[in-house]
Amino acid sequence: MEPEIAVEGLSKRFGPVSAVDCLSFAVNRGEIFGLVGPDGAGKTTTMRMLAGVMSCDGGRMKVAGHDVAANAEAVKGSISYMPQRFGLYEDLTVDENIRFYADLFGVARTERRERGAMLLKAAGMTEFRDRLAGKLSGGMKQKLGLICALIHRPRVLLLDEPTTGVDPVSRREFWQVLYSLLAQGVTIIISTAYLDEAERCSRLALLHKGRLLLCDTPENLKKRMPGATVVVSSPQARDLRELLAGAEGVSTVILVGAGLHLVVDDADRRVPELKARIQSAGIAFDEITASEPAIEDLFVAYVQGR
Amino acid sequence: MSPRRLIAMSRKEFIQIVRDPRSLLIALLMPVMQMVLLGYGVSLDAKNIPVYVYDQEGSQDSQALLKRFQASPYFDVRKTVNSYRDLRYAIDSDRCKLAIVIPFDFSRKLRDTGFAPVQVIVDGTDDNTANLSKGYARAVIARFSADVQHNWLQRQGMPIAASNGNISVDTRIWFNEDLESRNFIIPGIVALVMALVGALLTSLTIAREWERGTMEQLLSTPITPSEVMLGKLIPYFMVGMADAALCLMMSVWWFGVPFRGTLASFFTTTALFLIVILGIGFMISVAIRNQLGASMIALLVTLMPTSLLSGYAFPIDQMPAAVRAITYLVYSRYYVTILKAIYLKGVGVKALGAEMTALAVYAAVIGLLATRAFRKTLD
Q1: Which of A160, A304, B56, B211 is 20 to 30 A from B275 via CA?
Q2: Which residues in B lie closer than 8 A to residue A45 (C-beta atoms)?
């Protein structure tokens, strides 16, 4: 089966800076493919080139059967792109925005009404259809963006950090919609700064400074993780980080929410050692356990390794 | 070109104009304000020129001359003073624009020699008013001296005809019979309003999409560049035509400017002019991606030449040759010429062939350039 999205040697330079450097990957139909990496990794630039809104300096992109590098306009009827920044008209109502995008994609009127009503209902936004988009909450804005993106049944959905700044409940709802789309055979590329979200993708590409570091399923990526992860939750996480950084057998210390992730060589041996060390330093902590490595840990380990 | 996408774009843009107080203000209030401010404010007529008098003699003859000034609609004799110093002060402090000094031997010289000098001092800071008031004063005095001469001859029992000469000039003014500068200026203000409103509104249209971050998503849809351009300009074109109708109604019904041409010729030329203005505004908006910068540049390239080089208030044939040559490049020059002719002469489109052609060529070229200006890409 030919992949729905095929990228080969894709490159983009901004002056002396290489934003995307010889990137290659392929995404199959019905996959949700995640692009992860720190700011400046080239996620947004890659998305823009795939959406045909930015030219590339080299390489080939095939999206939904169209050669985007050669003819960007041809692909636009088959895809939907949600830019990182809210791209809808805040001075138009929810309904007016949906209608505008439906018209631009040539959706028939009856289909627009039915599909619009269905999508609004699924997003729990039916009662807000006459509200100005600018007056919606962050989560609802993102859902409206998704509705406008889905009104024409795209084959490929490109989402650039769609859940940044969105509350956890809305994020969960957002992902439910995405899963239902996968079941319908839509292919999704999503970039995200939330690494817990990255684990929900079928495959991931880790980008760093425009280059592809790794590309595999989240499970396989975790298997490559050297050593083991230890999670410590503590109200004084910052003090703990100073204490534990550079401790014997600890290669990486990452601050995560109200706690730390430590990468250690041998969890069974190090957990009691670390526990004793924290207690003797008199820093409060709730729990210290060995844990499954998260994508985050893997990512930090890889980026720091460079 | 898909009609569906075109209509969608126009409808969206129209909703945005209606919901944006700033755009509405520019579209509706600006024309009225411009018409009122410029219609009343810019007047090249000199009426009720303030006059101070220093009558050194205070005789019947001197009073008779002053009465002529009082009777003239062009002069407003404000005050009589008793020294040059007071006159100087009055002119310095802008209390009068013209001063009349009648010497102490005025009536004696008039009686004995039939020739008596009168001094007229004119404030030359505003040369237009100075020239006009000098001319009017000369006319009033000439009329007075003719009457004096006439009476004198009559008293001497001499034939009157001999003194008046045989040739008389009977001037008749066409098209602006009352020589009202308002009739000359207001048709040009229509051009000014069109340039201001059209350029200001369209200069914002693309810049706004960039500024608010809506452009990126728009670029990812199948809409074509010409659909973006036309779809965006159609609402502004309609606003412009409505403003033109508003200006026409105000000029005729409020300011009483004669409108002798046909509505068809008025709106045809206005449509051509609008295409030029909107095209320029659109190109600026494409080039400069922020609203403030775009609107400043738009004013610079549309309003400035239209107010200075179109001949709307400052006649082109009085400009230096080099500047006059430049005015041929100023598209508003043609529109203003046509407007004045339509308003005051009532001529049709045919008589204005050259100007119409120039304007149409401009519209075609700008229209074409505008279509190519917008590219669907972020880089």
Answers
A1: B211
A2: none
